[in-house]
């Protein structure tokens, strides 16, 4: 489980004196714990790794946006800090599909649903997310679905 990997990595970072790694892993654990608290009122997640993966994807997306803003604002040192956090968080992400695999998965979903236009994008995205949430980032999946339905 990803949670176990996070715990082990935190202990290793603390013992190794890696302050940036310790801080980032603690931040990830905090975000996962907050997500757990949010879900207490709802139903329990069926796949814990999927829940943690969603949190990691969201954190990576936030940091990429911050990095871009820091670079636009002429703050390369802050952009590099965000980039190092992204690298640490990505260590815990499940393996992502290659570009060809992702295109094939999207094409299979489109063919199965019989989608033919951009009007079907919501249905296709819902199915892609349900099947491949941990192996294709949502933004990447969206781009692939748009390209497949438009062309």
Which terms summarize this structure?
Hypothetical Protein Yqey, Chain: A, domain1; 2 domains; globular; Arc Repressor Mutant, subunit A; mainly alpha; 7 helices
- Find the CATH topology of the largest domain: Hypothetical Protein Yqey, Chain: A, domain1
Task: Give me the CATH architecture of the largest domain, please.
Answer: Orthogonal Bundle
Strand content is under 5%
In angstroms, what separates the terminal alpha carbons?
39 Å
Determine the mean pLDDT. Answer: 90
Q: Which bin fits the share of residues in helices?
A: over 70%
Computed over alpha carbons, the radius of gyration is: 18 Å
- Shape category: globular
Q: Tell me the name of the CATH class of the largest domain.
A: Mainly Alpha
Q: Tell how many strands the DSSP assignment holds.
A: 0
Unreliable stretches covering 5 or more consecutive residues: none
Count of DSSP helices? 7
CATH homologous superfamily assignment of the largest domain: Uncharacterised protein YqeY/AIM41, N-terminal domain
- How does the major sheet shape up? none
The total tally of domains equals 2
> Which secondary-structure class do the elements indicate?
mainly alpha
Give helix and strand order, one letter per element, not per position. Answer: HHHHHHH
Describe this structure as you would to a colleague.
The chain is mostly helical. Helix content is 77%, strand content 0%. The chain has helices spanning 2-16, 19-39, 48-72, 76-90, 99-113, 121-132, 138-150. The N and C termini lie far apart (39 Å). The mean pLDDT is 90.
